[in-house]
Structures
1.
Amino acid sequence: MQQPVNYDSDFCGSLPIHLTNLIQSYGLLLVIEPVNYTIVQASENTTVVFGSRAQDLVGNPIASFISEKSNADFLQRLTDGANTVIPMVWEVGQNNYVVLIHRKEKFLVIELELKAINENSNERFIDVYQEMKYAMSAIEATRTIEETCTLVARELKRISGFDKVMVYQFDEQWNGHVLAEAKESDMESYFGFTFPASDIPKPARDLYLRNSFRLIPDRNYTPVRLHPVINPITNSFIDLSDCNLRSVAAVHVEYLGNMGVTASMSTRILHHDALWGLIACHHKTPKYLSYAMTSMFEMMSSIISVKITSLQNQTLHASQSTLTAGYAELIEAIYKKEKLDSTMLSATGLMNLFECSGMTISRGGKFTSVGEVPAVGDLDELILWLHTRALKKVYTTDRLSQAYEYAKLFEDIASGLMVIPINAAIDEYVLLFRPEKVHVIQWGGNPEERIQFEQDQRTYHPRHSFKVWQQTVRGISLPWRAEQTAAAEALRSFIYEYETTLVR
């Protein structure tokens, strides 16, 4: 049977979105060599700020185009040795501009926002800062992830003025589930929707680990090329991975258009340095954000990430405490009764500890079970399958029938399986079962139509509709948590030591 294409990894995952050689038109970009600070490449919109075309800038030192003070500040910042993005202000003629300096390969990449700073910029920054302080206090007071996400959506919409703000979390397959939403009444609601992983493919997700936000002020912009197209020193494209101005993939521009969105801003949420979710902001019309506002989004990204991590750590700690206490009681009972299997099968044994609905101990070709478990014949087949895996560690799955097709016959009572190998060589195991948990996913459009190819099978488009598309999911149980697997590993080691001691 032909396997379905995984667009997230097989197709979208191979797109080099960081090597576009194009930028968005709300800024200009310079590539400078860091010895004589000569301009090597320039975007073809430099006339707006410098009064000179890109080809006239290339080959000249940057000092020829900015004020003496700006050049001195620029050189001083570079000698400070900072490896992160360096923000500063350049004076060009009568105007001041925000610039961001990146160290990239053997070059300095300069991003300059075309909108000049005016005398009210400091006041606006103070206003944004005050609003952020209020939001920070409110976020700190929340007690659950749902409460946090709801407040974040509401506050960021209020502060930023976007028409809609959504907070969504990635699942294990990188599908995004909308946990919270704040919107204008004329914006379509996606609350509770799930969007397929290919909507934000792996290359884009990887870039969020490097950059805290992605701003698209106007999807209808005309991309601006660099001059020359190829870096004359490296004979290759410059890597724009860390640049805010990096141009947007055509398929994503079309995707936003199909949503009725003109401007967007996405901010990452991290958990232990991994991408946990995103805050997605949408606007019906073009919307430019000042440096003060994008800085606020950067800071809020860190604050929200810390809060989400704190809440998840609290949940993990509570779960670990419960497991530790239950595990200690179980071990104590085993030593007290000197009966390993019967104690594990008791009401206060493993079923309670690991939140399962059935349990079987396989020894000497015989089964001892409690709760809801597969029939003896099905257990025989399951043991044969496990034998081929030669397990040395605890094995868990919340979708057994996807790994072991025969399990479709009993997935109503055993979609989830935890196997604690006692001695896999002679088919001795502790088997813990969880029942199927049927649930409905509300997709934002049909996930089977997430990418549509033209007849040439090369040109492709995103789906046109985001109307709810319901999918009933079967054959999956509640997932086994990492701390449960760790506790099961500890139990496996204990069983080995306990039985080894008895043999002695």
Note: The two ends are 52 Å apart (CA to CA).
2.
Amino acid sequence: MAVVIVLAVSLGVRGYRRRVAANELESGVKAVQACFEKSFGGSEEAVPVSAESGTAKKKSFGTWFMETYSGERGDILKRIQKGKISGEEIYAAVGETMHVLRDRYNGKLEDAGTARAEGIYLREGKADQAEVVIAGDLCFAEDGFVLDHYDTVNDLSQCIAPEILKTSNDADIFYLNHEYSISDRGEPLEGKLYTFRAKPERMGLLKEMGTDLVSLANNHVYDFGKDAMMDTMDLLDQAEIPYVGGGPNSEEARRPVYFVVNGMKIGFVAATNAEIVYYTPKAEADSPGVLEAYDTAEYNQVISDAAKECDYLIAYIHWGPEDTNTYEEYQHNMGAEFLQAGADIVVGGHPHVLQGIEYIDGRPVVYSMGDFWFNDETKYTGLLKLDITPEGLKEMSFVPCLQTGFTTQYISDQQEQAAFYDFLEGLSPNAGIDENGVITEKK
């Protein structure tokens, strides 16, 4: 009789524990689902429970999450207080933000190929943040520019300083403006004064620089016509270097590129507003070209849509007067528009020289990165470093460089660094730069 009572009590305890566990799990599902809906403003199309087509049952994000991350379930349940959990707590438990989890939930991150088809590139990060390094304008031209010097020395480290190459290669994402076409085809556009084209074999230099992404939103990518631009995009595809701001059609030119680094999703978009005489065509439904921002409405929509899909959005714009360190009022107004549309930072190019940095409502506009490696002129340039965490921009800094004599050199002397930072701060209405190049908003 005693054995029966003990067994009954034991079964009762087990049943109680199962009910408690089930209740806890249900609470976890509800809490995670509520966090998901708060993050994205409502429910999302759910993945099928079975592979059957037609009337397959669906499961909620909360259910999918608790089943998928069963190993972390206990930690997640401990973090839930009064049936609530935040995106930050979920990231702390599983190492992925809600944007990344949503993509995984929707089947976009099943493997690298599936992700690439969605415009998402997966990267292994080196720390609990993502380091994005951005350079200015790069011009490979075969007649009288930097490639002539490269062919003389046949060593990229004698063209771009080893310190710079290390920074670009060590970055989680290295991004620059691709200011030329790369092709054996085409003729220079009639009437255009400067036209730039590189041979296809020069693509290896982009890889050697550690390039992860380029912008085609500029006034030189179409210098040798349609065929040369199509070749440029094909060669970038073959090199597995994605591009933004241009495409074989308008849909592709508008399409953002995203990188997932350390469980964070970082987005990139680009557009151009640089030409007085329109030599570079706007991408159309059935023809290649660039994404234009002469009328900002379209680019604002691209930014707005992209911002909803990522944790941090970098908007590039090709704009501004050439060869002056002073940005114009329209640049300020456009930059404010792009931030209002959803960009976390706006980075510009085209003036060939550095322009200042301005914070607008707490977010930065870097008006011009200048020429990174372009010609033989002597001018300041540099690398913009962004350290990004799930909470946003942790730190922004500038690596001081000097383009001179067909090379780009790192400024290592402390006095020369100080002069560089003083110069850049002098161009910036409300940005301060310390002795380490760290940029902050002046309050």
Note: Residues 3-13, 49-55 have pLDDT under 50 and may be disordered.
